[in-house]
Amino acid sequence: MKQFVIIGLGRFGFSIAKTLAKHGHDVLAIDNDEKKVNEISDYVTHAVQADAADEKTLQTLGVRNFDAAIVSIGGNLHTNILTTLILKELGVSYVIVKAQDELHGKVLLKTGADRIVNPEKDMGARLAKNLLSTNILDYFQFASDHSIAEIITLPFMVGKTLKELEFRKKYNLNVMAIKRNQKLLMSPGANDKILEDDTLIVMGSNESLDKIRELDW
């Protein structure tokens, strides 16, 4: 189980918090709007109404002990940037921040943000799925129950062919491509062998992807 703190409970933040909590992780949700805090309280571990730009408040809440913080504050750029700065100064190792545009993103990176997301490109649920996984690099849901994912080659796959790994039979997943040395091998054959630094692009049901996500890497 991982621990996440979500700051800002608009649609993007709410989606992230709910998805992470649904997968059994410890989620602290923070917003200065009491109504939003009440709406999320039934889904997450803790929900707190607070000013995230107040250093003492975040320190009291113990945010430095969380695995990652997601700053999803919209509308107020000053609060968004200041909160990011405070989180890094308090020692949060991984801070993801929602940016309004490219320039805002550059400022956030200089402030210390580890990753910038654009809500138009990174849906909350998609980002949450990405955070939950140690072996899934990216995730795109193209239907209500099916997605495409980019996964790290696991040790047990190295040196074996796709035929030997039996992706379709064992995991109900189709390997669409293999990314190798910045090149893409489309529609790989059954006898194509997986190398150590390969990345696999697979397609299947969300249930099947959840199973591959849980594999020991």
What can you tell me about this protein's structure?
With 217 residues, the protein is of the alpha/beta class. The protein folds into two domains: 3-122, NAD(P)-binding Rossmann-like Domain (Rossmann fold, 3-Layer(aba) Sandwich), CATH 3.40.50; 133-213, Regulator of K+ conductance, C-terminal domain (Alpha-Beta Plaits). It contains nine helices and eleven strands. It has helices at residues 11-22, 34-40, 55-60, 77-89, 102-111, 124-132, 162-165, 167-171, 206-213; strands at residues 3-7, 26-31, 46-49, 68-71, 95-98, 115-117, 136-141, 146-152, 173-180, 183-186, 199-205. The strands form two sheets. It has a six-stranded parallel sheet, with helices on both faces. A five-stranded antiparallel sheet has the order 7-8-11-9-10. The longest helix is centred in the middle third of the chain and has 13 residues, at 77-89. The chain is elongated and about 60 Å long.
Estimate the mean pLDDT confidence.
83
First-to-last CA distance: 16 Å
Number of domains: 2
Strand order of the largest sheet: 3-2-1-4-5-6
CATH architecture label of the largest domain:
3-Layer(aba) Sandwich
Percent of residues in beta strands?
A: 25-35%
Main sheet record: 6 strands, parallel
Topology of this structure?
Elements: E1 3-7, H1 11-22, E2 26-31, H2 34-40, E3 46-49, H3 55-60, E4 68-71, H4 77-89, E5 95-98, H5 102-111, E6 115-117, H6 124-132, E7 136-141, E8 146-152, H7 162-165, H8 167-171, E9 173-180, E10 183-186, E11 199-205, H9 206-213
Parallel strand pairs: 1-2, 1-4, 2-3, 4-5, 5-6
Antiparallel strand pairs: 7-8, 8-11, 9-10, 9-11
